[in-house]
Amino acid sequence: MEIFKTKSALKDYLAPLKKTGKKIALVPTMGALHNGHISLIKLAQQHADIIICSIFVNPTQFTDPKDLEKYPRPIEHDLAMLNEAGCQGVFMPNVAEMYPDGKDENWHIDLGKAEFLLEGAFRKGHYQGVTQIVKKLFDAVEPDIAMFGQKDFQQVLMIKNMLAHFKLPIEIITCPIIREDDGLAMSSRNIHLSPQDRIHSLVLSKSLQFVVDHFQEYNLADLEEKAKAFYNDIDGVELDYFTIANGNNLEPAQNKEEENLVALVAAKVGSTRLIDNMIIK
Ligand SMILES: Nc1ncnc2c1ncn2[C@@H]1O[C@H](COP(=O)(O)OP(=O)(O)OP(=O)(O)O)[C@@H](O)[C@H]1O
Ligand SMILES: CC(C)(CO)[C@@H](O)C(=O)[O-]
Ligand code: BAL
């Protein structure tokens, strides 16, 4: 497995491979890898010849400086996991390599109304930061395909809007959410959960599963109310939102007959903010 710290080293590696027609997949990550990330690598291997995983904790998408500061960075462990998974290249630039003009360089694109809903409402400017870095990663790799997890449902939508904005010929593949045996969606931030938080964290997947399992039984308002009631009286758990939304634009669902419905949730469990979602139909 090759490790690249600069865009130019990465380009030098990829150029001859592209010339011989190899299909390139990019798997963007912020590191602290778990089996959710590895599932993206494995799925990429079914669609492409060369897999490049990027590891970069992108400062411009963090709205809470403490969140950025404590983001886990177990690089040796990450490299071992990627090597074991058969990833050919890892791109791990530093901040200056990705933001040569400083982190405040001008970037603003129209991502549509959905930018300001849900995660965008709680993490102001988050999706400008995400799309800014993903565009830089796309420019550095020029992949044929790129893999993103459904766990960050809104992120996938925003990245597709960014691709449309720049008319980039990259196929986005959305990968299913990988969960722990008890239902918790795998996430790098899960390591911050105390043993008690870890038990409480199950409320996210349980409330989502409730909505999926009982979708036919109740109307939308009752489904949401019953799902939100899961969060009542759990010590140290604070619900940011629970919504049943249209998966195309993340607007609240208007009726149960709509296509593409998804339930999405974000909650603080102890001091750790978690997100999760389940597709209803
Ligand atoms: N449990 C999971 N199943 C599938 N894909 C996942 C899972 N967790 C993260 N991903 C995807 O991996 C990619 C990189 O995500 P990232 O490095 O932010 O990890 P993360 O676990 O989501 O961390 P965190 O949410 O704590 O930042 C994203 O496309 C994300 O959606
Ligand atoms: C796509 C991404 C790597 C951009 O920093 C990040 O938002 C993530 O890990 O989901
Ligand atoms: N996986 C989403 C990255 C973030 O939380 O900033």
From TrEMBL:
Keyword Ligase assigned: yes
Enzyme Commission no: 6.3.2.1
Gene3D superfamilies: HUPs, Pantoate-beta-alanine ligase, C-terminal domain
Active site: 37 (proton donor)
Binding site for (R)-pantoate: 61, 155
Annotated InterPro entries: Cyt_trans-like, Pantoate_ligase, Pantoate_ligase_C, Rossmann-like_a/b/a_fold
Single GO BP term: pantothenate biosynthetic process
Binding-site list for ATP: 30-37, 149-152, 178, 186-189
Binding site for beta-alanine: 61
Enzyme class, broadest EC rank: ligase
Pfam family, one: Pantoate_ligase
Primary localization: cytoplasm
Compartmental location: Cytoplasm
NCBIfam families: cyt_tran_rel (TIGR00125), panC (TIGR00018)
Family: Belongs to the pantothenate synthetase family.
Functional summary from the UniProt entry: Catalyzes the condensation of pantoate with beta-alanine in an ATP-dependent reaction via a pantoyl-adenylate intermediate.
Subunit structure: Homodimer.
Protein's name according to its UniProt entry: Pantothenate synthetase
Source species of the chain: Pedobacter rhizosphaerae
